[in-house]
Description:
Elements: H1 3-6, E1 9-10, E2 16-17, H2 28-34, E3 42-44, E4 46-47, H3 50-58, E5 64-66, H4 68-75, H5 85-98, E6 103-106, H6 115-123, E7 129-133, H7 145-161, E8 167-172, H8 182-199, E9 203-206, H9 212-221, E10 227-229, H10 237-242, E11 247-249, H11 253-271
Parallel strand pairs: 3-11, 4-5, 5-6, 6-7, 7-8, 8-9, 10-11
Antiparallel strand pairs: 1-2
Helix pairs in contact: 3-5, 6-7, 7-8
Amino acid sequence: MSDSASRSTTVDDATTVPASGVTPPTPKAAVLRALHVAGAPVVLPNAWDAASARMVEAAGFSAVATSSAATSQILGFEDGEATPVQEVLDATRRMVQAVRVPVTVDFERGYGLAPAELVERFAATGAAGLNLEDSEPATGQLLDVGEQADFLAAVRQAARSLNVDLVINARTDAFLRRAGSPEEQLATTLERGRRYLEAGADCVYPIGVGDPTVIKALTQNIPGPVNVAYGRGAHSLATLASLGVARITFGPMVQRHLYSMLEATLLPALVADTNPFQ
């Protein structure tokens, strides 16, 4: 048998057909899903283009997440679904093609796509998962919990119908939008987390939570993996793991930190004719 005949044959960006007798690779969505372990969280520094995705992979991280705010900025748009959806999908495809590890995408509210079209167009990028949030990007208003649960269920059903496996990270925004008192925000988040998991989500992302006591209450009472944002590092990765977190993300903070260094240090040095590279 020739070398070429013994190797796997790539059909498209997301599918590999192994040669006879070769164990097929585990689908990337299954790899990503298995990384969500309470107490041993998957850590996902958020990338924004192919170059940053490669850096995340090269640093040894087991998957790459994107940030809608960071990606939008690179593409010349504001966050909040202002970027044309095809540009988001094209940027996603480039990141997927740049790395071997699974890629999960901040897909905001779904860019107004119906579930079947959303899944079909998203799956074509080869990405393994996506975030879907439960407030309107333009207004910040929380959506009705039943409406969002139905939407997530429809996305999951569309994926099944198209034989596509996607890791759905259901972002819930009660803390971010300060919906009621702190106690009401917690109660709302717990209800939404449970409903979204029942609808077919794999993970719940209560964005904006930072109090360790509240984080612990979420991980103990949401019957599935919980994603917490690292923010500015108020809590170490080890601390978040000890609270039962299963996924840690950074949103646009990595990009913002790098760009602030460019703006505050490197560029002023060049203006002053001071060598910033020494």
